[in-house]
Design the sequence.
């Protein structure tokens, strides 16, 4: 048990320790910071690093993708979990296949499209929010539908049958009975989707090429820091801790639900 | 989980003409309405780009000066499969860990190597973690919390974290008492990537396996113990076969995810390091160089590779990816009907009437 905990936390501990050193001691290998310092956490917010705008970009993109996928995903997942229709196997296969596609295959034509290379699409969408949001739907939506379908399936079908016996249409049964009960599942799915989009790198790197359109992870990967030519390890680690702590708090707080969601969804 | 579906046996041929779609009982239209927005979005953000990738992969953007006419070229040109066959006719030789070879083949080998090593290590460590967690009673919540930490850390952050650990003056060398240049362009950088990837994802496999383990009733183990089975026998004869369905799906997802790996080697080792360049990275660099045709072709190679591996997993290991009880029941029903028809034909009997199904949706035993 202790081995597992150490395995999971030791590298993270190293990141934390390294972020608490003096900026000039970025490569130090002392196991506790000596002397401890929070200067790195100040340096992170230096305007040259573009970290604050990047975090705002990340929040905008992740929230938009999460809301959009929930909007579409809830409807689709309900139909997949409850209704009987032809081609259900096909639809499920398409959705699961989408979550396995290599992102790069999708990115190349989208890059060409968003740089206004095609004559029939004369808009340059590079460095816009839509260029960051739309490609992210390609993995966010399958993830969301898949998780929600698993959640809806767990709710007993008798609930809706009872509602329909009482005169509800299937639509009313869904809105009045199922949706309130599925709220925890929807919430968990939202967190999982949010984290997936927050951590996404390739799309953000491709379509946000201007410093003011970096997302947080892209900004972090491009840190050059303010202390000369040496890689600013302390600042990078501090930024990593800042990016990770909210996610870890979120995950710890909703631990049980997220574990249930991950095991039900099975995808990433 | 008990099987939530039942299939009625063959009934008398109904008096009215049997409906073509046995599943439909008026829900089809509603389902279509609910599903179409999602499918539309998927068609736009996945279907359309894939078709265009296929198209791009047989074109090439003209650049430079035409050698015969001396005119600066522009636009693009249909080149057939040249983007794919360049590895034979016009190789772009690079030196990686596996020797000097075309950059595409090098990326392909790196991708395969990473996938095989990472997934194997993750599965072994993950299953070991799951077994330990299922045995222990104290501190299970703590471990579960710890296990989610690597999962939640953004890959780029973890890549930077490992880059510092594997720095030439870093803590990895200090602990090992070595002076290895982990992040230079060599075989050690491959292992740095592998360690970072395994660290991040083995707990995830552990989590999925644990969920499978917890569905195995204790009585099974008790019975085995009474019969004198050793701990190892219990593990290989009971645990592994019973978690296999869940494990195979988890391993499949991890395999496909590792095959498209991009951000970890990119952020850990950096650009232009051929020893860790994966297919995703290679296609990305080509795209950045505005060589759309080549980039699309390499991404199609990766795509086909992934499709092939997924197909093999489903066919050979029987990974039940879709996991929908209703769909499964219908597939079985179709198989039975086909068999019945075949048998009837062979025996010269009248073909059996189509069956009316009573398959219900949802996980209820109604």
Sequence:
């Amino acid at each position: 048990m202790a081995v597992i905990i150490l395995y999971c936390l030791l590298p993270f501990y190293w990141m934390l320790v390294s972020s608490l050193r003096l900026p000039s001691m970025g490569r130090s290998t002392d196991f506790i910071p000596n002397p401890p310092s929070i200067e790195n956490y100040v340096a992170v917010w230096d305007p040259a690093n573009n970290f604050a705008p990047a975090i705002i970009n990340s929040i905008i993109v992740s929230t938009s993708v999460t809301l959009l996928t929930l909007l579409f995903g809830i409807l689709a997942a309900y139909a997949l979990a409850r209704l009987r229709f032809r081609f259900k196997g096909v639809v499920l296969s398409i959705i699961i296949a989408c979550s396995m596609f290599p992102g790069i295959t999708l990115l190349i034509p989208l890059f060409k499209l968003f740089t206004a290379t095609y004559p029939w699409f004369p808009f340059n969408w590079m460095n816009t929010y839509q260029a960051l949001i739309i490609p992210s739907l390609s993995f966010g939506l399958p993830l969301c539908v898949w998780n929600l379908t698993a959640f809806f399936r767990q709710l007993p079908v008798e609930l809706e049958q009872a509602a329909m016996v009482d005169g509800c249409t299937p639509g009313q049964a869904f809105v009045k009975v199922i949706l309130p009960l599925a709220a925890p599942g929807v919430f968990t799915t939202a967190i999982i989707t949010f984290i997936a989009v927050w951590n996404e790198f390739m799309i953000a790197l491709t379509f946000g090429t201007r410093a003011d359109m970096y997302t947080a992870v892209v900004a972090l990967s491009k840190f050059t820091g303010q202390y000369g030519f040496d890689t600013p390890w302390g600042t990078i680690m501090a930024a990593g801790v800042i990016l990770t702590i909210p996610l870890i708090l979120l995950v710890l707080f909703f631990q049980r639900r997220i574990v249930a969601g991950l095991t039900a969804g099975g995808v990433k | 989980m008990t099987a939530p579906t039942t299939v009625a046996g063959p009934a008398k041929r109904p008096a009215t003409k049997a409906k073509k779609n046995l599943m439909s009982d008026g829900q089809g239209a509603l389902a279509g309405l609910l599903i179409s927005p999602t499918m539309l979005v998927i068609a736009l953000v996945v279907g359309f780009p894939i078709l265009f990738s296929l198209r791009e992969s047989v074109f090439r953007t003209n650049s430079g000066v035409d050698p015969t006419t001396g005119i600066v070229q522009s636009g693009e040109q249909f080149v057939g499969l040249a983007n794919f066959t360049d590895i034979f006719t016009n190789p772009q030789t690079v030196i990686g860990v596996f020797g000097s070879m075309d950059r595409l083949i090098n990326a392909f080998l790196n991708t395969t190597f990473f996938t095989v090593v990472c997934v194997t290590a993750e599965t072994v460590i993950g299953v070991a973690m799951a077994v330990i967690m299922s045995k222990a009673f104290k501190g299970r919540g703590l471990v579960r919390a710890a296990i989610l930490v690597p999962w939640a850390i953004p890959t780029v952050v973890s890549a930077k974290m490992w880059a510092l650990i594997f720095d030439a003056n870093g803590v990895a060398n200090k602990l090992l008492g070595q002076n290895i240049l982990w992040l230079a362009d060599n075989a050690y950088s491959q292992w740095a990537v592998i360690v970072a990837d395994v660290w991040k994802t083995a707990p995830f496999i552990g989590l999925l396996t644990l969920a499978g383990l917890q569905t195995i009733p204790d009585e099974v183990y008790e019975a085995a113990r009474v019969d004198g089975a050793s701990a190892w026998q219990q593990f290989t004869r009971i645990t592994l076969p019973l978690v296999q369905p869940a494990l195979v799906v988890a391993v499949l997802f991890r395999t496909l995810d590792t095959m498209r790996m991009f951000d970890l080697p990119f952020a850990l080792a950096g650009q232009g390091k051929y020893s860790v360049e994966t297919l995703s990275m290679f296609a990305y660099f080509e795209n950045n160089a505005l060589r759309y045709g080549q980039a699309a072709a390499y991404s199609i190679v990766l795509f086909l590779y992934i499709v092939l591996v997924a197909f093999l997993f489903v066919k050979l290991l029987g990974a039940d990816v879709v996991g929908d009880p209703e769909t499964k029941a219908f597939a079985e029903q179709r198989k039975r009907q086909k068999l019945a028809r075949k048998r009837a034909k062979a025996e010269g009997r009248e073909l059996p009437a189509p069956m009316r199904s009573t398959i219900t949706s949802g996980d209820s035993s109604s």
